[in-house]
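Morning!

As promised:
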Amino acid sequence: MGLLSIIRKIKKKEKEMRILMVGLDNSGKTTIVLKINGEDTSVISPTLGFNIKTITYHKYTLNIWDVGGQKTIRSYWRNYFEQTDGLVWVVDSSDLRRLDDCKMELDNLLKEERLSGASLLVLANKQDIKGALTPKEIAKVLNLEAMDSTRHWRIVGCSAYTGDGLLEGFDWLVQDIASRIYVLD
Amino acid sequence: MEDEEESLSSNPINGGTQSESLDRARQKKHVAMLERLASRHQTRLENSLKSAETDSSSSSTLGFESTSSFLSRFADSRRSIEAQIAQCRLTNPSESTQLKPQLDSISASISDLEKLVAENSYFLPSYEVRSSLKAISDLKQGLESLSSDLVPKKKFSFKNKAPKKEREKDPSIETNREKEKEAEIGKPEKMSFRVLESPGFRDKKGEVLVRRFSGSEIGEFTISDLDSCEVRLMGCVRALFVHRLRNCRIYGGPVMGSILIEQVEGCVFVMASHQIRIHHAKATDFYLRVRSRPIIEDSSGVRFAPYCLSYEGIHGDLQEASVGEETGNWANVDDFRWLRAVQSPNWSILPESERIGLINISNSDNEAEEI
Ligand SMILES: Nc1nc2c(ncn2[C@@H]2O[C@H](COP(=O)(O)OP(=O)(O)OP(=O)(O)O)[C@@H](O)[C@H]2O)c(=O)[nH]1
Ligand SMILES: [Mg+2]
């Protein structure tokens, strides 16, 4: 392989972003990823393991790792922390009972050294469901304001059903990562 | 102090007030960012060079989408890692300067193997993904026990843990569980304004509970803390949460999203949905129609059969919720606690002779049936 093609390869890599999607089981991670990618969302099984989607978003290539959130496999999450540019934490805003679980798992995640540089997007999903908490209420329950002040974060309400809010969330995430990482371009 | 200064400029949402220290903070942050960038750049460079190097051999990677070639590559790497672990066991533990890099290299090989699974998981049958993940977790455990055996420090912390485990067997665990329960019950009060609003059946004993959903109120519905009740739901909802039921019979029309069932015992469920997740269920029968694979976790003695509900207008409801047709998925149960080739001992198919017949809940308005 010639030097030129190697250089091209590096250039290509430079525009890549690694995004890790986590959250409790049933929060809608897989549905969100498929929706963004314009795929059919009508038959989705709970994720055993993980899915990787490579999506071109503006001029960036997003490598999205969608990792299963069932309790048994949450211990695998840490295998995907390395080199994460953006962290997406998905919340089922209609699942009031498990918000405490949700807060605990998020708190644990944010303690992770390897994720300390990652931008955090909290998606308050399932806003289409009557009775769902608003992003503001979710932010309060998760106590997001108390987060380490060096963290770049934002919470956005969305629905993987209607697609509302998804682009707003990912726009912010990609912009934020880009401004940190590709600032020298 | 320094952290505070930095936070002024680094939180994009708060914006930050103007102050003299701002410039200094910016500068500092800029330096830190350059450093971070440099190290990122280095790893990216290394990675891309690595993949560039292997490119000649990975031209075949593109056409690598066959299960058998994946399996043989997986098996090779796995064997080599197992061999490394075995060999490491034979090294003299006192040569710890060599031990560390050896352990690191095994750990890196395991990560590579994991990546291999990830990259191929989109075409692999789910069983292969599961068994590969299981194999990887076994390797990790092997490596962990190797390092705790060989690295003295680890051994010590191991001993430290032992008494804790013994304490777990202590009857005081009961009080712990009680506390947990209390906490769980106590928590919703924090948000009681919402919980009260949220529609559902809660805290009932020995009753027949009937609800018809009409198109305008499609939302979430909760069934919790019921003992010896019969629940009849007609019409569509978007999400259904079921929590802590004993000896209940739950007959439900279609759910357009997912059903989450936790802590049920001695119950019968007849349900239709896009997704069904069952946690901590014991001795319970499920008659299901599902678009995707039902899953169980931490459950035992659960049995499955096809959906068997009828009420006036159910066909329209099922159609509307896109569960008009039998998918056969009621029998494709995944047990997250049993990622192995052999059938999970925790669930089974309900023998036809033991199944209930078609349940008709059409005339549910007037009577309070005995249970
Ligand atoms: N009403 C509604 N339902 C949603 C929405 N997003 C996801 N769902 C439903 O929620 C259920 C869970 O979605 P998944 O995408 O499988 O959830 P997940 O987070 O990937 O779950 P795991 O893979 O187990 O971690 C599915 O039945 C979806 O149809 C939403 O925005 N609104
Ligand atoms: Mg999923």
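Chain B touches chain A through 70 residues (CB under 8 Å).

Hope this helps with the figure draft.
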